[in-house]
Specification:
With 243 residues, the chain is of the alpha/beta class. The protein has one domain: TIM Barrel, CATH 3.20.20. The chain contains 10 helices and 10 strands. α7 links the parallel β6 and β7. It is globular, with a radius of gyration of 18 Å. The mean pLDDT is 91.
Length: 243
């Protein structure tokens, strides 16, 4: 096993012990500096209470769709149960997890969970990647969520390892620019693409969230590209760990 994998036995032990956690990262309105929402970030821990990167866990879980669903659903219960009140809540939802039950209607457990949550408005984040099948699933999810008046966002836009589905971007309410945008802010050709995407979003009535904001310089950059909201380690997080 390398440091980017988890052994099956360790994964089973983690699931049985439910060593799950959640971290809430603020999404801040760029003009007013007020918190508009919190993103619920999944956290996992080993026997020694050390963090295990979530992408390692979810990569391993994709080999078993029903187990993926069970872990994702327990995470969502935890995230919503301890979420800060009086702010919108952004929750990530894996397309494979959503469709693992075979339901894309009111019987879907995630949809039922979101519709029954009354403490705050929920925005569902879809992860953009290179699989065309995921884009097709995303479109179906967005349609079902929209019919239940649940807003959506597309995550990781402009990540160099992800592909962009123009159909998905047209349907979501929020476009989240990956932290790679901040890292490449001096790349003039790349920034032409970013500026065009921001211009499109605003013309279409969508909001732009810039991730990876860690310094005041990053805030000035967010203002320069006319982002609506910012997110990153510059802002204090509210953390809850479940053991």
């Amino acid at each position: 096993m390398n440091n980017r994998q988890i052994s099956p036995l360790n994964l089973i032990e983690l699931i049985e012990s439910q060593r799950y956690g959640v971290e809430y990262q603020p999404i801040v309105h760029l003009a007013s500096k007020e918190i508009m929402a919190y993103e619920c970030l999944a956290r996992f821990y080993d026997k020694n209470n050390n963090n295990i990167p979530p992408d390692i866990i979810y990569a391993a879980l994709h080999d078993s769709p029903l187990t993926l669903f069970q872990v994702e659903y327990q995470q969502k219960l935890l995230q919503l149960d301890h979420a800060p009140s009086q702010s919108d809540i952004f929750v990530n939802l894996d397309q494979d997890s959503y469709f693992s039950t075979g339901e894309d209607n009111d019987k879907n457990p995630f949809l039922k969970l979101f519709k029954n949550f009354k403490n705050a408005n929920i925005v569902v984040e879809l992860i953009e990647n290179s699989e065309i099948n995921d884009a097709i699933k995303s479109l179906a999810m967005i349609d079902t969520l929209a019919k239940s008046d649940i807003s959506t966002a597309i995550d990781d836009v402009c990540n160099p390892l992800s592909m962009v589905s123009t159909s998905v971007i047209q349907l979501v309410d929020y476009i989240k620019l990956d932290k790679h945008v901040v890292a490449e802010k001096h790349n003039k050709q790349f920034m032409l693409l970013v500026e065009a995407l921001v211009s499109y979003a605003h013309s279409a009535g969508k909001k732009i969230i810039l991730e990876g904001v860690e310094t005041e310089s990053d805030m000035l950059f967010a203002q320069k590209i006319k982002a609506d909201y910012v997110q990153g380690f510059l802002f204090k997080k509210w953390f809850h760990c479940y053991k």
